[in-house]
Write a structure and sequence with these properties.
By secondary structure, the chain is of the alpha+beta class. The chain contains 8 helices and 26 strands. The longest helix is centred in the middle third of the chain and has 23 residues. The two termini are about 30 Å apart.
């Protein structure tokens, strides 16, 4: 059980600034609001009910309540349906943001929707951390969401003199011990510090930190036409995965038998898939959004999906899976020389340390593999017809007794130079209830115009390949780890499932 299980966090925040009525650009709206002295302010309480979930990849959402005061609307009004996202990623740009959104009603019962965001991005040649952290660009819509007409736009600011009050308002919810309370404070601060450090100190910080969770399933699905095989992979990969390039990607891949000894192939990848929610620890997976059927060949790319390339047919997917994930011992790369017994004794402490201090992971790759037994699963995929409308299809039900899988929760903390290359191969045998994962690591030789550096990177790559590559075999409820070097590689795939 996580040290943060059942623990929440709460704090208060106030921001004030100016709103320009009728403006759609926050900067212009702020200038007009200053001249006309049309102020806007919110006083909110932010509540993280489940800190353990909040700190996971893609789950940084909290509840927001309080009041908003707007001179143009003539009063102070209670907030409803408020949410706060800390360091969420913009799918279009990959930029980290802090997002505040809520609804409220004025004295005439007219509904409004407030949306504000802070842009967490280091601008070259400019020291802008404080500016980015204290300025919120806002738009107020006259209606229930962003589809409504814009009422006004502007900027509001967090005043540094209010910092001590915000910190003193911070309190832990549901802690059962002083250690759990300390872990809650340290984990939240470590997460926030790590995200800011990786953005604003990336030019001088020699390391990068990233995480991912993924799910791999193989087995059978059935519908009214009978049973057919399937293979499914999906994951949430945080900023910088796997080699510290600052990018992020989430993905869904699905292969389903077509009933005629062939296969239907589907995939989707983007910086963020807003309809994807994976929680390995809790055993839940949900994806509602687009998939692309690959009609020609076996390969496609992010750019081809964006451009709607020939051979890709857009589909509408709804996937729900509930499963039991049993964690195995965390495997570290490079391998430690500590004795097996000592590793087992120290593993619970190390795992709790990683949870409490997510920005201070140990150097290297740390993978916690899980065996996965599906409790229930349903796939529904409708394709786009010639008229542009989505044609519905019969749902496919997972045959749980014929389905098995593997999942991972992993962290990377590595040096930026030389660049680490990371290869991952997973095979699953549902009938035998076994899964095999191979990790291949080496360094990228990316500066061949510099002969000496290129040769040094090649030398380091040989060392990394021998010490940070391995095969993990999960069978019979246990885990066997075998160091896997280039010399073990068999082009006939005898080492793979």
């Amino acid at each position: 059980m996580s040290i943060l299980e059942g623990v929440g966090l709460q704090f208060e925040e106030s921001m004030s600034g100016f709103l320009g009525k009728g403006e759609t650009d926050p900067r212009k709206g702020a200038d007009i609001g200053k001249r006309q002295e049309t102020k806007v302010r919110f006083d909110v309480q932010i509540t993280i009910p489940d800190l353990d979930r909040f700190l996971k990849v893609g789950k940084h959402k909290a509840e927001l309540s309080g009041t908003v005061t707007c001179d143009l609307l003539g009063g102070t009004f209670p907030i409803s349906d408020g949410t706060f996202n800390l360091f969420s990623l913009d799918p279009k740009t990959g930029m980290r943001q802090m997002v505040y959104s809520f609804r409220f009603r004025d004295a005439d019962d007219q509904e409004y929707y407030f949306h504000g965001h802070k842009e967490i991005q280091d601008d070259r040649g400019k020291v802008d951390l404080l500016e980015d952290m204290t300025r919120l660009f806002i738009i107020i819509y006259r209606g229930k969401d962003e589809q409504a007409p814009i009422y006004g736009a502007g900027e509001i600011y967090f005043k540094l003199k209010d910092g001590p009050a915000m910190i003193s308002s911070m309190k832990v919810l549901g802690a059962r011990s002083i250690w759990q309370k300390a872990a809650a404070y340290s984990s939240f601060i470590s997460f926030a510090y790590g995200a800011l450090r990786d953005e604003y100190l990336k030019d001088i910080h020699p390391f990068y930190d990233t995480r991912y969770e993924n799910l791999v399933l193989s087995g059978s699905v059935r519908d009214s036409d009978g049973t057919r095989p399937f293979f499914f992979v999906s994951g949430e990969h945080d900023k910088g995965f796997p080699w510290g390039d600052g990018e992020t990607f989430w993905d869904v891949m699905l292969v389903v038998g077509d009933g005629e000894e062939g296969y239907q192939r589907y995939c989707m990848t983007d910086r963020v898939l807003e309809g994807l929610d994976l929680d390995v620890e809790r055993g839940t997976y949900r994806y509602q959004g687009p998939l692309y059927a690959v009609k020609e060949g076996y390969v496609t790319s992010f750019s081809q999906m964006r451009s709607g390339a020939k051979g890709l047919v857009k589909c509408d997917a709804n996937i729900e899976i509930n499963f039991e994930a049993k964690p195995c011992e965390t495997v570290g790369f490079p391998f430690t020389v500590v004795g097996k017994l000592l590793r087992k004794l120290s593993e619970p402490f190390a795992r709790q340390l990683r949870e409490a201090l997510p920005a201070e992971y140990p150097l290297g790759i740390h993978i916690t593999p899980h065996t996965v037994n599906v409790r229930s699963g349903m796939l529904s995929i409708g394709k786009t017809g010639k008229d542009g409308k989505i044609e519905s299809s019969d749902p496919l039900e997972m045959v749980v007794e014929q389905t098995f899988g593997e999942a991972e929760r992993s962290t990377f903390r590595n040096i930026k130079e030389p660049t680490l290359l990371y290869g991952y191969i997973c095979g699953v045998r549902p009938a035998a209830r076994t899964a095999r994962v191979q990790i291949h690591s080496r360094t990228l030789r990316d500066e061949r115009e510099q002969w000496a550096k290129d040769q040094f990177d090649a030398f380091l790559g040989t060392i990394v390949s021998r010490t940070a590559s391995a095969e993990m075999l999960m069978e019979g409820g246990g885990l066997t780890v075998k160091p896997f070097s280039r010399q073990d590689y068999d082009p006939q795939r005898k080492n793979l499932l």
